[in-house]
Amino acid sequence: MELWFSEVQTKNLSMSVRVKETLYMGKSDFQDIAVVDTYEFGRMLVLDGVFQTSIFDEYIYHEMIAHVPLFTHPDPKKVLVIGGGDGGSIREVVKHSGIKSVEMVEIDGLVVEVSKKFLPEISAALLENNPKVDLKIGDGIGHMTKAENTYDVIIVDCSDPIGPGEGLFTYGFYKDIYKALKPDGLFVQQTESPFYHQPLLQRLNKDIKSLFPITRTYLANIPLYPGGAHSFTIGSKKYDPLEVDLGGAPDLNTRYYNKDLHKSCFYLPNFIKELLK
Questions:
Q1: Are 187 and 260 found together in one domain?
Q2: Do the Cβ atoms of 116 and 139 come closer than 8 Å?
Q3: Cα angle at 154 between 273 and 234, to 5 degrees?
Q4: Nearest to residue 159, comparing CAs of 24, 21, 25, 33?
Q5: pLDDT at 9 exceeding the cut of 90
Q6: pLDDT, tens digit, 9 for 90 and up, residues 177-190
Q7: 127 and 157 in contact (C-beta within 8 Å)?
Q8: Would you say 50 and 36 are in contact if contact means Cβ atoms under 8 Å apart?
Q9: What is the largest CA-CA distance in the chain?
Q10: Over the stretch 87-134, which tens digit does the pLDDT of each residue have?
């Protein structure tokens, strides 16, 4: 009998994948966790029934959430990743040799352990115990309330705005991020689908723009995520990703991100421009 796994996008739409094998099924204190091996996407991490990442296309998301902000800041030394329990963002961050330390605050330790076991390609930097990485299992929202003038770049690699990720999409959280960044710091957050989450994207853009003088949204094409197009939003105190000089930027052997894409990903379709006005 064929086994299919479905993620409900809206009350009228779902996405389904045919599953070869269920590798893990469990429940943490925060959410249901599954790893399934699929025919189309390979091994996939699923949280509370929502597709999070897959071996097939994970590099797109992780490269774009990490390298766009890290190449926008001219000299990032201290970086914070909130969430990102699969380890993919950390893997990309530590490719930047100038970074001295990167903290990772993930609320669900079971996600980290499951990812290390079943998604080792993504969790490579955690498996290697990279000396630059300081992994903390804890609440990212609480962590932000205590930090001030600390980080050059903050990457909010969160799940959808439900369950443990809900509080990471609020104005109060963005105020704490602003406080935690250095005077020339910047942050990035994944901000969902420009097709299926328009009210959310509109609200987040407004909240971030009210705090940061430079606020820009960019896109990446990620087959696993609803609609194929996925958005990210940068809030920056000083540096504009469209004005950065990437002439001397090192080649990090990426599969998706490149210097041309760094700027072109910010050129948005008209319907998104209208949405964010």
A1: yes
A2: no
A3: 10
A4: 33
A5: no
A6: 999 999 999 999 99
A7: no
A8: no
A9: 58
A10: 999 999 999 999 999 999 999 999 999 999 999 999 999 999 889 999
| Segments forming the whole domain that contains residue 19 | 3-54
The answer to whether 80 touches 53, Cβ cutoff 8 Å, is: no
Indicate which CATH number applies to the domain containing 49: 2.30.140.10
E strand or H helix at 236, and its extent? strand 229-236
Q: HSE-up of 41 (CA within 13 Å, CB side)?
A: 26
Q: How far is CA 162 from CA 3, 131, 273, in A?
A: 26, 33, 26
Distance CA(100)–CA(161), nearest Å, equals 31
Same domain, 69 and 167: yes
The one-letter code for the residue type at 35 is: V
Q: Which residues are catalytic?
A: 157
Candidates 131, 49, 116; CA nearest to 84 is: 116
Same domain, yes or no: 95 and 215: yes
Mark whether 171 and 74 lie in a shared domain: yes
> Domains in the chain: how many in total?
2
CATH code for the domain in which residue 125 is found: 3.40.50.150
Is residue 106 located within the same domain as residue 29? no
261 and 160 in a common domain: yes
